[in-house]
Design brief:
Length: about 725
């Protein structure tokens, strides 16, 4: 139903706004009045009660993880009148769009058959006309003009769902109600929005003469995003050479259940900083402060917001248990940012409590997708397997974007931060000596995280920058006191550390992990060890080795690059037994290229397709693949079922059995930047997510060349590699 669809795709405030407008339009004046003046209308009371009940049920049934799911394409922000049309070169609108839409021709006036949705039950057939010569949008009821707008009066076009054929056109004047339009085809919808975008690009050409016309064109219009899919995003630039450079500041901090410092100088950036995006992940953020009515996580965020200043706005705040993921964005990017969505998962006691777990937020900037994950994994050096299991559960349980795929295989960039709790498997006294001489690399050779990354047990596809600072845990707090917490290790930890080392084929002497008992004295009597390059001391507790628990990792889709230019710790924050870790990233986002050639006239054909699946799966597996892409319409094509075979490949499909992928209304140079996402499933009686064997990504860079595109991609499941897919594909004239 239309009302339910809106609830799934837009925020609660916007749903309420649309419903109120729809109800006011759908009720005739005679029905809205009381039957008896001066008395209550039973019909009105019943309608009011049922309306509140329906809104309450709809709101309560919405998924908690959705924040702002609707994709907004800002096309204008402030124009009160159309500039002198003689100043406009409107001929370029047709010339540019005729490349992507040959059927469009070189017409100045285009009409679209639409259904205008006013409420769940009230829908009206309309004709929407766009006159690119006069820069007008006209609403026709048959042959009668219902209303006419200047295109410059359009504030934004909201695409509710890429899978549907609907858009909502918002106008600058509040008296003009938004137009919720349903097109007859996705091609018409794409042409409609692209046409508006090109018209507004022409309007920008008169920015120099804005004083003459008394109008102002905002600079945000210079970079208008293309239509984008809610699930997957386009790849790199198609050769236009234009791009937007972004700088990101990403940090993680285990607050240690203690109030943060009064000042964040030396750690967090503030107004005037060069960073476009600030991402902060905190753990153990539960403490008492002056206001007993304000949650500690909200208190922390307010202090941070006051520090970063007015140049930034709060894009997303996700909280669960004692963790928070906070993202700030430069205000100048607000019009280019969309599709914010959050989710969380608990991996604590019994897999239910949230004392351990992860949370994530995803969004787009200029059509480029980012996903940030903040997690707190299982503590204690001996619980290495538990940490790896936490990682797999977080990857498989977080549901963002397209829900069939995990968070690692659908976004341009994924950055994972948090107190990952991986320890250094080394005797404490030896670690202290290495810290005093800044021998980080020798300690990192025994780092558990790097060990599991080499083995492919967790974070195997992630990157990490060079660690050139002292371990970030366990440090003395500002008063020098050492408090008991959930990280207290027991005596059997020494055997666990020895076992970890033995698994890595290293020679282990049990005395190397026997703790500090030979030094004599109680824990309280032992001295604090101070790192030579910092002002923070470490507590010399037996079986407790200083470690890099706080980490920042990242990965990107093929063809995308996230450059880490700095990685550092902040030793001046002394309120916790951890110190913050921060990283600075640079990335370039290509702007949408000018479309050249239409891919709708060709198919993508697989000449060869093979799959290799690890022996851990049942030998009786019946495998098939399903293909997803930004340029494909539903139903998504899939291969026939193939049984495991003995020979060169576990599974193999002939070229004739693999369905061709037919793009719709996509330019060839844009197709060269796209991805094909593969979902491998078992047809052996399993259903839903239980049938998923793995997922893979094919980058189509080079698909437009004359030679077949060869691919060899990892198949992953729950963040672990479980196989490979290989083959070749090419373009074929339809």
């Amino acid at each position: 139903m239309a009302e339910q669809g809106l609830s799934d795709e837009v925020g609660e405030d916007k749903v309420g706004q649309l419903r109120s407008e729809s109800s006011s339009k759908g009720t005739s004046p005679s029905r809205s009045k009381s039957l008896h003046p001066g008395r209550f209308s039973l019909r009105g009371i019943a309608s009011n009660v049922m309306g509140k009940l329906r809104r309450s049920l709809t709101t309560s049934l919405r998924p908690h993880s959705l924040s702002h799911v609707a994709l907004e394409v800002p096309v204008s922000r402030a124009r009160s009148e159309t500039p002198d049309l003689l100043q406009l070169d409107t001929s370029r609108v047709q010339s540019r769009l005729s490349i992507s839409y040959p059927a469009m021709g070189n017409y100045d006036v285009l009409r679209f058959d639409v259904v205008k949705v006013r409420s769940q039950t009230k829908k009206q057939k309309r004709i929407i006309e766009i006159n690119s010569k006069k820069m007008l949008l006209t609403n026709y009821d048959g042959r009668n003009v219902r209303k006419e707008f200047s295109i410059a009066q359009i504030e934004k076009v909201e695409i509710l769902d890429r899978k549907e054929k609907e858009v909502v056109v918002h106008f600058l004047k509040s008296s003009n109600k938004p137009y919720h339009l349903k097109f007859s085809s996705k091609l018409d919808r794409d042409m409609f929005v692209d046409l508006l975008r090109e018209c507004l690009a022409v309007l920008m050409d008169v920015e120099e003469s804005q004083s003459k016309h008394g109008t102002k064109v905002p600079s945000e219009l210079a970079q208008l995003p293309l239509l984008l899919n809610e699930g997957f995003d386009s790849g790199q630039n198609g050769g236009s050479g234009d791009c937007v450079n972004l700088r990101l500041f990403v940090t993680t901090f285990n607050v240690g259940d203690a109030p943060p410092p009064a000042q964040f100088d030396g750690w967090l950036p503030s107004s005037g900083s060069p960073y476009d995006i600030i991402v902060i992940g905190v753990q153990e953020c539960s403490y008492k402060h002056s206001s007993e009515y304000v949650d500690a996580r909200d208190h922390f965020e307010k202090k941070v917001r006051a520090h970063v200043g007015e140049d930034y706005y709060l894009l997303s705040k996700s909280v669960h248990w004692d963790r928070a993921l906070i993202i700030y964005m430069k205000k100048k990017l607000q019009g280019a940012t969309s599709s914010v969505e959050t989710d969380y998962v608990a991996t604590g006691i019994a897999g239910i409590l949230g004392n351990k777990g992860g949370m994530a937020a995803k969004f787009r900037v200029h059509g480029h997708s980012f996903c940030f994950i903040n997690s707190h994994l299982a503590a204690h050096a001996k619980n290495l397997d538990a940490r790896n299991a936490n990682y797999k559960e977080i990857v498989s349980s977080l549901k963002l974007g397209r829900k069939q795929f995990d968070v690692l295989h659908q976004f341009h960039h994924v950055v994972w931060v948090g107190d990952l709790n991986y320890r250094v498997s080394m005797k404490g006294s030896k670690a202290v000596k290495l810290i005093e001489t800044c021998m980080w690399e020798e300690m990192l050779e025994k780092d558990q995280l790097r060990l599991v990354m080499r083995r492919g047990e967790a974070f195997s596809d992630f990157n990490e920058g060079k660690i050139d600072f002292a371990p970030t845990f366990r440090l003395s707090r500002k008063n020098g006191a050492e408090e008991d917490d959930d990280d207290d290790d027991d005596d059997d930890e020494r055997e666990a550390v020895a076992a970890d080392l033995a698994q890595d084929s290293l020679e282990v002497n049990i005395s190397d992990v026997a703790g500090e008992e030979s030094d004599g004295g109680s824990d309280c009597e032992q001295e604090l060890v101070r790192a030579s390059d910092a002002t923070r001391p470490y507590c010399k507790i037996k079986t407790r080795t200083p470690s890099w628990c706080d980490r920042i990792l990242w990965k990107s889709l093929p063809g995308c690059t996230l450059h880490e230019v700095d990685l550092f710790s902040c030793q001046n924050i002394i309120t916790s037994d951890h110190c913050p870790v921060a990283a600075v990233f640079n990335t370039s986002i290509p702007l949408p290229p000018i479309k050249q050639g239409v891919a709708g006239e060709v198919n993508i054909v697989f000449e060869r397709l093979e799959a290799f699946v690890d022996a851990g799966f049942q030998s009786s597996i019946n495998l098939y693949m399903k293909f997803f892409a930004n340029f494909l319409e539903k139903p998504y094509p899939k291969t026939p079922v193939c049984k495991r075979r003995v020979g060169v490949a576990d599974f193999e499909w002939s070229s004739s059995s693999v369905p061709a992928l037919k793009p719709y209304s996509v330019a060839l140079n844009v197709l060269d930047t796209e991805y094909v996402f593969l979902l491998l499933r078992d047809d052996n009686g399993k259903k839903g997510h239980n049938s998923i064997v793995g997922q893979a990504v094919i980058y189509l860079k080079g698909i437009t060349s004359k030679q077949p595109l060869q691919f060899d991609a990892n198949v992953s499941m729950h963040g672990q590699q479980v196989g490979r897919v290989r083959g070749s594909l090419r373009l074929h004239n339809a």
